[in-house]
Amino acid sequence: MTSTRIVLPSRHKPFAEDLLQVTGIDSLSNLFVILLTRYGSHLKASWNISQTITETITQPSITTATTPPITTAKIYNFPEPQTQETEVDPLIARIAGLVDLF
Question: Which of 1, 2, 78, 86 lies 20 to 30 A from 30 at CA?
Fold first, then answer.
């Protein structure tokens, strides 16, 4: 197994140690691995969305104003979505409030 060193700024160390106590994870390395594997995909997806939104807002679009054609509205009745009970991961339940602080 290869290793990579990650430097944790001292101002974040108390919070990281608090996460270790709350979750029962035994090291900062394992904490980082868990955060990366559980929340990395979400971070990547949300980061791309925020970048796209920023680019859209900062780059003006050149369009010509046209009057939309008059159409008849169609009303669709969609079935109510079915809800399923999902089991909450115990680790997620314990650190859910702390994740928002990141």
Answer: 86
Give the other-Cβ count within 10 Å of 25's Cβ: 19
Q: Where are the domains of the chain?
A: 10-58+91-102
- Residue found under tokens 């980061």: 47
Query: Model pTM?
Result: 0.45
pLDDT digits (tens, 9 = 90+) for 25-65: 999 999 999 999 999 888 888 876 655 555 555 555 555 55
Considering only CA atoms, give the Rg of the chain: 23
Nearest in space to 101 (alpha carbons), one of 6, 7, 15, 13 = 15
CB count within 10 Å of CB 19 equals: 20
